[in-house]
Amino acid sequence: RSSNVNMIVIKENNAYEHKLFTNIKYKITGSVDKEMEGLLKKGGAEGLSYLSDYVTHCIAGSDPVDTDISDALELYQVPLVSQEWVIYSLKCNKLLPTSAFKGGERLLFTGVVASFSKLSQDDSKKLWAMLKYYGGTYNSTFTPATTHLIISKPEGQKYEQALKCTNIHVVTPAWLIDSVRTNSHCAEILYHPWLSVTEKPQLISVCEIQSGPGSA
Known about the structure:
By secondary structure, the chain is an alpha/beta fold. The chain has helices at 3-8, 12-18, 34-42, 66-75, 84-92, 121-133, 157-163, 173-182, 206-211, and strands at 25-29, 46-48, 57-60, 80-82, 113-117, 137-138, 148-151, 169-171. Strands 2-1-3-4 form a 4-stranded parallel sheet. Strands 6-5-7-8 form a 4-stranded parallel sheet, with helices on both faces.
């Protein structure tokens, strides 16, 4: 059983009772977690085998079909979401905005699997939202898939562990912020905590970044 499904399994009965996904007609493209689809159906959703005007959501798993993606977005103009939209909607017990769970396309942080250390709770929440909105994944612990450790200062158990892993980039929060501001992956080597200045970068919301300078 996947960790994501484990995280929201306590919501299963609630979803069943309140039919959270009533009126959702979905088409799946690619491979998705079978338990996730089971939770969808228990919540009142109806699965369809092909796209049509009847479909309200297209859920993209791994290796989605290109024609499904283009048809969903261009022909039928239905939201294309990742399966995490289902999981976090269950966790919050409400249908979340689909814009934060885009599926089937490469976003700025697609492929980035990050863990945090030495950050305040408030900063962690802001960085998590930024990472998630742009397609990244967060894990509280290191896994073989972890690509980045985002840390405020070069110390601690996670930091020492990351130094032993050649596949993990150790960066400050400024790497995430500057990458979003420039809409490109900044060079991680320039954001190692040993090189960081003493000033703490100001963490702002995704909405503030998107509004850009000079916006009303």
